[in-house]
Structures are given as structure tokens and as C-alpha cells.
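All the exercises in this workshop are built on plain-text protein records. The record below serves as our worked example for the rest of this section.
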Amino acid sequence: MGRLQRLTFDGALHHVTMRCNNKEFLFEPKSMALFLEVTSETCLAFGVLLYNYCIMTNHVHLLFEVGPGGSLPQVMHRIANVFAKRFNAIRGRKGHLWEQRYRSAIVDPETYFLRCMAFIDLNPVRARIVDEAGKYQWSAHRDVLAEDDSRIALHRVYLKLGEDRQARTQAYLEIIREEAAREPHSLANVLFVGSAEFVSRMQQDFSIVSRKRMRLRRIDLGGGVYAIEPAGARTADQKMKPARPR
């Protein structure tokens, strides 16, 4: 079976991961700042709403909403290629920077948005770089809690957490604590994640149920949330791999 086409639509909420080639630990603070700069430029150019990000030493996580007139491939092509060219030029480096293609999952905003935010924020904690999300510089966690929208957008689901910023902060920190207690499941191979109704609708909308050669499996993430991924996905990707501390 050939590659599955990119699954997206106007207004789709995507969790995206990108990993360095050969799983090398290439990123340090200057390159992390550069990646954030390129991502911000791209979001502005394509009308993308960036809700969260986490830049680790060998991979990155993005959570964003595709804007009208833009597309997931266009957005990711610009981020990946512009960053790679600038990164290689600064380092005097040649060759591929990214491993294979980026991975993307369509997220149900109603049932998994906040948990996806927490999943991203917990990356440096689970990698034992910091002991709490607020101590990590290269994620949007502090911007979210401060409700600083200069770089990120605040999703309507987040804003419904409370009547004021303090109430929303406390509610979100509790969601992070709950997510930290769950066994993490990598989203790298996931196609859709959300309620049972949401993932079934996505399979129908993209006609995946009619692809007889594609075997899918449904993973129960708890709390009425399910992930759909190819049954042949490598088990090595199921557990999050820690990034080396700097």
C-alpha cells in the first residue's frame, strides 16, 4: 500500500510531530528560537492559529488550526524547508535535517484539545528535563497560563475553563496533573483522536473504512477518548522517547 494522503480540511485541528534525521539531538537554544521564529512567520503567512508547541532537542510538537485558504502540506512544507535551510546555513551543515515525513493527527477539539495541550506540555517533564511544565522555556505553557496571545492563540475550549484567568489557570493545571497520571501514548502514528463518534465520522469522511488493505486499530486513551492508527504502526513508536537534556 502506498502512502496515505494527508488528512486535513479547512479548520482542522492538528497535532504535528517532526523528528530530526536519525533521531539526532541537534537542537539547542539558538536553533529552538529560530524554529519558533520560522513557525510564527508561517502561521502569520497562512492564517494558522497556533495553540501550543514544544521544541525538544531532537523533535518538535505543534498544535494548530488550519486556516481557510491554507493547507496542512503548505504550512508544514514551509516550516520544514525554511527552517532546514536557515539551520544548515548557520551550522555550515549539508544534508537532510528531518526524519521522513512529519506526522499529523486530526484532534477532536471538544474532547481532546485540552488533553492534547497537556500532552505537549508534559514532554519535557516526562523526558526528565524539568520537574514541572512551567520551568521549560521552549514550550507555550507559560504563554498559555499568562494568556499572552502575541505568539499563540487561545482556543474557545480553553477560555471556557473559567470566568477569569486565575480560574482557567487552576483548571488547566488540574488537567495537566490528570494527564500526567495517565500512561502516555505517542500520537506520532495516530490519524484521528477524540470521542468514539468523532473518530468514526473522520473514518467515514475520509473513506478510510473502504480501504480494504488498510488495517486500523482503536486505542482507548481513557475518559471516552480514542485514537485511530494503522495496525502496522511500529510498537517502538508507542512509547514517548525522552530527549537528551541540555
Summary: The chain has one domain: 13-237. The first strand starts at residue 13 and ends at 19. Strands lie at 13-19, 49-55, 59-65, 103-107, 192-194, 216-222, 225-230. The CA atoms of residues 13 and 65 lie 4 Å apart.
